[in-house]
Write the structure tokens for this entry.
Amino acid sequence: MSEQKTARAARASARAIAARYEKVDIRTEPLSRLCDLLPGTPDPLEEADRENLIGREEWESLDTRRRNQTVGFLRRDHLRSRHQVQPPRLFLRGLRDPFLDKAHAKVVKDPKIVFRYRDAPMAALTGRNTLSVEPLLALVPRLKSTPTADLPVILNSRLFHFYYVHYHGKPTGKDALPAEARLEGFEVPMLTKKTGGPFREARDEIFDLARRNSERLAAMDHVQRLAEEGRIPLVPLARTEGIIREINVPRALGEVADVKRRGPVVIFRRGSTIVTTTEEAATYLELWLQQRFDRLRGMNKDQLEEYIKLPATTAHVVMTLQRRTKIENEVEKAQTKIDDLQRQAEDHLYDLYGLTEAEREFLRANWS
């Protein structure tokens, strides 16, 4: 009986929220008037010749013009949160690949809006170190439209998630409309300076925290930089103390696949491995190599032992990873603050719709 009562209350809340959404007493515009919806980009990292790929470290060393001609792709799990993107480790050298048609090139080049439906990211943000998400839709703000800076927060709100499902059924349902159709009809509240003041204060702080977190995420993978900042001595692999148990490279490395790790073993490709004495050393080595994988072609065992630079001792490795853990904790702390600010911004949004506390609780409980 209590379950039936709860279900009736939920249906009543949904109907009330839908009615308030449809009759909101502020100016709105459909999302289709503010943004162009473009197809998602393919994932070229699965297809590209390794000669066309460069690591993040090399990408960061390019001049601005060449950097802007270089493309990186974020996979689904690299969108770390609603407003936070993990910069890619690998980049393509240019846009001339045959699998990038004009529409996809536009997706790569234009600014975009980040948002996600629950755990499914649905758009991409381009900016410093952040590039297209695959294989998802992209919302590209039009040049002559009402300012759309509010959209990342609005489209990540529980109200939008409610709309996305309530009006068009579950995204996986057989009768559900395509994602484009579900997006186009969403009425975006156009906030004035007066009504949107508190909302935009929270929005700006969200963007600032998310930008800093994106930089922290990039810094976490630059373990050599972390070691140098901590004044930790780095030496060639052959001269480390108590870190490497065995290096096995039977022939010079050809096309080097993604560097992988299995416990204390770092794997380049079948038959080529470095066995470390601890998993911490393997973690450091994996991160170091992934920044430089494109430089390993043609190297044999002796060359790798001189090229690879690691902290001299296991204790130094641990100290470097502790610096990395500290940054990771800062990321988590900032993300908690971002989540709080998102809730604050949503509450200001719900004030405009006149949602009751019960209706807000319904959204928080069902559309997070």
Q: What stands out?
A: The chain is about 45% helix and 15% strand. Confidence is low (pLDDT under 50) at residues 128-133. The first helix runs from residue 2 to 22. Residues 310 and 316 are 9 Å apart (CA to CA).
